[in-house]
């Protein structure tokens, strides 16, 4: 700032000359008019309205003028600054309006565009069916338990009383991930059934144990109308004091009623599984013909092939050897187990003729099952 000017003539202070002030005002107005967008306007504002702008510097010179000149110079600079502020505000409003109009066009949503060209997905009927079965047992106080699909041979076979050379191992043709090592330690397999989860559940918990174990299992079966190499099973295990085959039968009857309706009979046929003793195959009365098709060619039943009964799965009382392998006292506790294939159950529950339809991912198969979540 200049030193106080006692013998004052404002014309002598260069920055305060009227034509200088006018030039500053014109330049500011021209810069605002030339600003093409709000960013450029912000820069023009800093240059012409900021602390170091020509008009701000001129304003500071006023303080150095003698009192009689201050009013006139102040009025001149103030009017110029007022005009600059006004021009800035007007240009800002103009550019903001342009920006808003542009955003409205660029971000417009065409509400008339079709929104439903991609069909909404739905969960696979195998999954929803599995969960329905789980729900039945959870409602009875069972816990859902899961185990690994890549399983130690020990859990899949040895702990379940399959002897190393027992022909029962060949009952379930196995995908081996790795064989036994040189020390004869357990190999690794893709589990062939959900029964290893029985052993894991007993090792993880103190009795009583009530678990339902759904999961994917693998066998070297060819894919055909009634087999797939990857399928689903649900396993049931109950360990408590005093459990008998009657408890097993009653429990399965409750599941059958929940899934297929009231009044269907079940029956046990002798069978063999190394991990249950005694073992049985469990059949339910055909829920479609209720036996009326048996010996009645005039009324054939596709669901049970006119046999009157549908095979549900394998079951039995847990073999005491399995209880011992899982650290449970067979003198005190007994238990039952039941395992069945979900694909086969879904087949007869919904009259699916070919199991391959379940794995090929064609929505024409899944669509009739609806959007159940
Ligand atoms: C077992 O896997 C025993 N773990 C079941 C069990 C559990 C018995 C507890 C006793 C106590 P199985 O090999 O029969 O049993 O198989 C059970 C079910 O799996 C069969 O009834 C069938 O529904 C289904 N299943 C077997 N192989 C296939 C396959 N390749 N494709 C589709 N489903 C299959």
TrEMBL record:
InterPro entries: aa-tRNA-synth_II, aa-tRNA-synth_II/BPL/LPL, Phe-tRNA-synth_IIc_asu, Phe-tRNA_ligase_II_N, Phe_tRNA_ligase_alpha1_bac, Phenylalanyl-tRNA_Synthase, tRNA-bd_arm. Its main location: cytoplasm. Binds 2 magnesium ions per tetramer. Mg(2+) binds at residue 277. Residues 133-368 form the Aminoacyl-transfer RNA synthetases class-II family profile domain. One of its GO terms (cellular component) is cytoplasm. The keyword Lipid biosynthesis does not apply. GO terms for molecular function: ATP binding; magnesium ion binding; phenylalanine-tRNA ligase activity; tRNA binding. Its cofactor is Mg(2+). Keywords: Aminoacyl-tRNA synthetase, ATP-binding, Cytoplasm, Ligase, Magnesium, Metal-binding, Nucleotide-binding, Protein biosynthesis. Belongs to the class-II aminoacyl-tRNA synthetase family. Phe-tRNA synthetase alpha subunit type 1 subfamily. This is Phenylalanine--tRNA ligase alpha subunit. The lineage of its organism: Bacteria, Bacillati, Actinomycetota, Actinomycetes, Kitasatosporales.
